[in-house]
């Protein structure tokens, strides 16, 4: 499959898995803590939940941040007709590293390891973008 659409859709699907994971953990924890849904209307009101519960929500937020650059870049590469083997490998590497980042954050949440994986994913994304810029403006 020589298309950037597959890694894009894989990361979208993974984001939805984390969304589900977040609510599967959050709703019972809110009930146990006696937090009413309306109480969550204000920032920080869910900070009383256990760290493991908050980690999934934090990771979901992370998946709404930098990956937006990935989506734009991957789709631009696809539309430009430049989805070669390297672009695909870099895109899949980015997706794989973001999945690993999620798994680290929602399990052991070791910040140093999480940062390393994040940095590696950012490098993969940067190389993907730099390659495309060289093709476009080279």
Structure in a nutshell:
By secondary structure, the protein is mainly alpha-helical. It is built from five helices and no strands.
Element layout with pairings:
Elements: H1 5-33, H2 51-63, H3 67-80, H4 85-106, H5 111-137
Helix pairs in contact: 1-2, 1-3, 1-4, 2-4, 3-5, 4-5
What do you see in this structure?
The model has no long low-confidence stretch (mean pLDDT 96). Helix content is 76%, strand content 0%. It has 138 residues and is mainly alpha-helical. It has one domain: Membrane associated eicosanoid/glutathione metabolism-like domain (Four Helix Bundle (Hemerythrin (Met), subunit A)), CATH 1.20.120. It is elongated. α1 packs antiparallel against α3 (67-80) and α2 runs antiparallel to α4. The longest helix is centred in the first third of the chain and has 29 residues, at 5-33.
Helix proportion of residues, in percent?
over 70%
Biggest sheet record:
none
Low-confidence stretches: none
**What's the total count of β strands?**
0
Distance between the termini: 27 Å
The CATH fourth-level homologous superfamily: Membrane associated eicosanoid/glutathione metabolism-like domain
């Amino acid at each position: 499959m020589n298309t950037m659409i597959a890694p894009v859709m894989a990361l979208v699907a993974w984001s939805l898995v984390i969304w589900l994971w977040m609510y599967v953990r959050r709703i019972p924890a809110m009930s146990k803590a006696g937090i009413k849904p309306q109480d969550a209307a204000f920032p920080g009101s869910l900070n009383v939940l256990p760290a493991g519960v908050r980690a999934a929500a934090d990771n979901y937020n992370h998946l709404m941040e930098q990956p937006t650059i990935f989506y734009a870049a991957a789709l631009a590469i696809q539309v430009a007709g430049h989805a070669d083997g390297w672009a695909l490998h870099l895109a899949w590497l980015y997706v794989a590293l973001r999945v690993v980042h999620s798994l680290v954050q929602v399990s052991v949440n070791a910040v140093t390891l999480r940062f390393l994986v994040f940095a590696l994913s950012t490098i993969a994304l940067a190389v993907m973008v730099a390659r495309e810029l060289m093709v476009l403006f080279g």
